[in-house]
Design brief:
The protein is α+β, with helices and mostly antiparallel strands. Helix content is 55%, strand content 11%. The chain is elongated, with a radius of gyration of 39 Å.
Length: 757
């Protein structure tokens, strides 16, 4: 016998402690705070250069004098979002900062407003109001629980939109990379080499090369930081040969002083809000669509990052709480003059790799961004515009979904690729708002096309192949097999709505003209709309005109969409009493009702009132009276009330039951679900035969459907009877074998019918 090694005495009756959660909350752990600091620092170094570039890009259409304000707005947005969104959000380790979708929406809006000759202060006010509305909408999304729904934006729309945003960023930054002055578009700048500034090209190309190569050399310092440092260094190397570049005043290749008119940034920010009193309410319609688009995009961007974060850290985020936190963060950012943003993928991944653990890492990132603003504010003036353009071009290229080209490899996904291309084209030629609407509309059309192309019929069978669980006599089965073709059973699936209603009618129409009973099994139906309900009403009326009946079975009281289908059928009039429709809780009940009608039409009735006697058993008809008397002496009579359990699954029982009067339901219990109805036995039927033969525990429950009287033959008395009446016992066992075999054959027939349907 092997030895058993024990480390220490234990109490075996004690519950094991499997918890790995420390008693001290993670937010209070000193080690976690240290990890959060380093994670926040690394995330800030990644987020800040991009935020500066995003801010400059948004403010650029207003004129060169606003470039520095844009840079500061990017830093302030990073600070506000980092502190507020992390404090109130629902995702650990998430880093929030200004992002590309905000740049695409706000810069496009600024360009559009400048073309309408609005003044720069007025445009700044409108952009601030858009950001405020965006924050309020995000809070609303979270409060009404849309956080779980925004994640389900069709992927082709998201892919096309992000690719479109990436192209917009590239197109807007190429002229800056080339050193072409404002007001000249992408193609004109690209086709006019005489306008290029070699100094900008050197700085921009250096920045891009460092962005590409830095991750291959070191992981310690973020590529964005290194590229900005090398780009700035390249600028000063170029300035060594071109001395005017060392002068800040009038220098178009750098961000420049905080404001062109020596007005301090915070004074400019306050003057923006003072201008609120002059806001024309008629301009409000200019804000709705950009604000809604921005809110949806920033929410999607955030939740997409949260999903990736959950996968990497095996955690779960709170979508609705996160949207509320993002909304509050964008409100705070706008209030202090910052740029709106979202949960940023790059900075978040750096935070994780730098061991950030809690939401405190986001707060630390925002705080360090604010410190950087206070300490390094004067140095921002010397950041080369071409370096920022190089960073943004690199970001834009990475936003383009090159993997979407794989959709062209299969005919099944070509239309999804068409959606992506359409969204990109509309984004480039019309607007981002129109692109999002077009993409969603096309995705809906593709969905309807797919749903309409599929069938809502999962299985079809007929009444001469599929029967109820009610065990029938031989003559009854002969009638049902002959008349069963009057009944057709359709098992429906999916959603019955305007896109599938015509297809459903086309499938049912041929059977309506030939069958008397049309059974629709609704157990796998997800939803029903008014159009489908109208089609079903039409089917019911057509059946009634021919003297037939439309029957619903397994109609769910609550489907995944939350719809109460039974109440809905009553509400739309489909289940009115005057209409010839019937609703049954289960398919078996519907089939039993139809079978009883067919048997009545053939005048086949069971003598239910008369008590069945054991002598009526076919195998005993030619036995001697003394043999029958011995059998009757071995059995006992028991009576069960309606609903009373005769035996349960797992019971140790060796009794065989013969039904004298009444009926018994055999049920298979299912964990957490309604028991499955296996069969219903009536007068003269036998049950309990499996345990009687193999001595194993009961495999199902037996419940009296109504007051029921049974004969009971125990295995012990049967064995004793066998000693004196061996032939009788042998005949009974042969008869039981035939019963079991016939039931197995019936099950085989039903399985074959299911397979062929």
């Amino acid at each position: 016998m092997p030895a058993i090694m024990t480390a220490s005495p234990v109490t075996t009756s004690r519950e094991p402690d499997c918890s790995s959660v420390p008693a001290t909350p993670a937010s209070q752990s000193p080690s976690n705070l240290t990890d959060d600091f380093w994670g926040g620092l690394a995330a800030m170094l990644v987020a800040l250069p991009s935020a500066i570039a995003f801010g400059v890009t948004i403010y650029a259409p207003l004129g060169s004098a606003y470039g520095a304000q844009g840079a500061i707005a990017g830093i302030l947005g990073t600070a506000a979002l980092g502190i507020v969104a992390a404090s109130f959000g629902g995702t650990r380790r998430l880093i929030s900062a200004p992002c590309a979708p905000a740049v695409a929406v706000l810069s496009a809006f600024a360009i559009e407003m400048t073309q309408k000759a609005l003044s720069a202060p007025a445009i700044l006010l409108l952009m601030a109001l858009i950001a405020l509305l965006c924050g309020l909408l995000q809070i609303g999304f979270g409060l009404i629980g849309l956080g779980r729904l925004i994640k389900y934006m069709p992927y082709p729309v998201v892919s096309g939109y992000l690719s479109g945003v990436g192209l917009i960023i590239i197109v807007s930054q190429v002229p800056k990379l080339l050193g072409v002055r404002g007001g000249i578009g992408f193609w004109q700048a690209l086709l006019s080499p005489a306008l290029w500034k070699w100094q900008s090209l050197v700085v921009g190309i250096t920045t891009i090369l460092v962005m590409v190569l830095a991750p291959r050399v070191t992981k310690l310092v973020p590529a964005a930081i290194l590229s900005l440092l090398f780009g700035t260094a390249a600028y000063f190397v170029v300035a060594f040969f071109d001395r005017p570049l060392l002068v800040l005043a009038g220098n178009k290749l750098v961000i420049g002083p905080l404001a062109g008119s020596n007005v301090k940034f915070f004074d400019a920010m306050l003057s923006r809000w003072r201008a609120l009193g002059a806001f024309d309410i008629s301009q409000f319609d200019l804000l709705i669509y950009p604000a809604l688009t921005l809110a949806v995009l920033l929410s999607i961007d955030t939740l997409k990052t949260c999903v990736v974060l959950d996968t990497l850290t095996r955690s779960r985020h709170n979508s609705n709480r996160e949207l509320i936190g993002q909304g509050l963060g964008n409100l705070a950012s706008t209030a202090i003059g910052g740029v709106p943003g979202a949960g940023q993928m790059g900075a978040t991944l750096v935070n994780i790799s730098s061991r950030g653990q809690t939401r405190a890492s986001g707060v630390i990132e925002g705080t360090l961004a604010l410190v950087a603003f206070l300490v390094l504010g004067k140095l921002i003036a010397w950041v080369p515009i071409a370096a920022l353009a190089g960073i943004l071009i690199f970001v834009g290229v990475r936003m383009i979904d090159r993997h979407s080209l794989n959709l062209l490899k299969s005919r099944a996904t070509i239309l999804d690729f068409v959606v992506i291309v359409t969204v990109i084209v509309v984004a480039e030629t019309v607007s981002l708002i129109a692109a999002s609407g077009t993409g969603v509309a096309l995705a809906i059309l593709l969905f309807l096309r797919e749903q309409s192309g599929g069938t809502v019929i999962r299985r079809k069978s007929y009444g001469n192949r599929t029967f109820s669980k009610q065990m029938r006599l031989k003559k009854e089965m002969e009638v049902l097999e002959r008349r069963g073709e009057c009944t057709v059973i359709f098992e429906l699936q999916g959603s019955l709505f305007f896109g599938t209603a015509d297809r459903l009618y086309s499938e049912l129409e041929p059977e309506i003209k030939q069958r008397k009973y049309l059974v629709l099994d609704m157990r796998r139906v997800q939803s029903v709309d008014f159009t489908a309900a109208h089609i079903l009403e039409l089917v019911a009326d057509m059946m009634a005109e021919r003297g037939g009946v439309l029957i619903f079975s397994h109609t769910p009281s609550r489907v995944p969409s939350g719809q109460d289908m039974v109440s809905y059928f009553q509400h739309v009039g489909l289940a009115r009493k005057e209409r010839s429709t019937r609703i049954f809780p289960h398919l078996d009940a519907a089939l039993e009702w139809v079978e009883n009608l067919l048997l009545q039409e053939e005048h086949v009735e069971r003598p239910e009132e008369a008590t069945w006697e054991i002598r009526e058993l076919d195998v005993l008809r030619e036995r001697k009276q003394e043999t029958l008397a011995a059998l009757e002496a071995a059995i006992e009579t028991r009576t069960f009330k309606a609903g009373e359990t005769i035996f349960s699954t797992g019971d140790v029982g060796r009794e065989l039951y013969f039904i004298r009067q009444g009926s018994v339901r055999i049920l298979l219990p299912l964990a957490g679900r309604t028991a499955h109805h296996l069969a219903t036995f009536g007068r003269g039927d036998v049950f309990g035969e499996l345990s009687f033969v193999d001595h194993a525990p009961r495999s199902a429950d037996a419940v009296a459907e109504r007051e029921t009287s049974v004969y009971v033959l125990t295995r012990e008395r049967f064995n004793a009877l066998q000693q004196e009446h061996h032939k009788l016992a042998l005949n009974l066992m042969d008869w039981l074998g035939v019963v079991i075999a016939s039931r197995l054959r019936r099950a085989d027939d039903e399985l074959q019918a299911l397979k062929e349907s």
